[in-house]
Amino acid sequence: MTVRGAIVGTGSIRAVCLQLTFLCKICECPFIVDQPYGLYTMPKKCGVSDECDNKNYFEPHENSDTTLMMDCRKIRLQDVQNYDVRYRCDLYL
Ligand SMILES: [Zn+2]
Q1: C-alpha 78 to ligand 1 mean position (Å)
Q2: Nearest Cα to 58, choosing from 18, 36, 26?
Q3: How far is CA 48 from each of CA 43, 58, 61, 75, rounded to the nearest angstrom?
Q4: Residue 14, by phi and psi: left (phi above 0), alpha (psi -120 to 50) or beta?
Q5: Ligand 1 centroid to 41 CA: how many Å?
Q6: Cα of 31 to ligand 1 centre, how many Å?
Q7: What is the pLDDT along the chain (93 residues), one digit of tens a residue?
Q8: Residue extents of the structural domains in the chain
Q9: What is the pTM assigned to this prediction?
Q10: Fewer CB within 10 Å, N side or C side of the chain?
């Protein structure tokens, strides 16, 4: 996808977590949960095994090797090609 436009604002650089490792407190095994756009997402159920029906007791492990962090900067783009349809979008670079 190609986007042309003017950058009308930038945010500060922050670390965004894309994949967070959680520890199931029942079977005590770690598993990875995708964090879409860095949005903190708790697991809905234990990701280790179907036989474990833990849905509530998880512990996030931010310092685990399998946790994926990324430095992101949010920028705001304003379309300059089409004056009728001005739209804004937020991108993570
Ligand atoms: Zn479990």
Answers
A1: 46
A2: 26
A3: 11, 12, 15, 37
A4: beta
A5: 17
A6: 9
A7: 676 777 777 888 888 889 999 999 999 999 999 998 888 999 999 999 889 999 999 999 988 999 998 887 877 777 655 444 444 445 555
A8: 6-92
A9: 0.67
A10: N
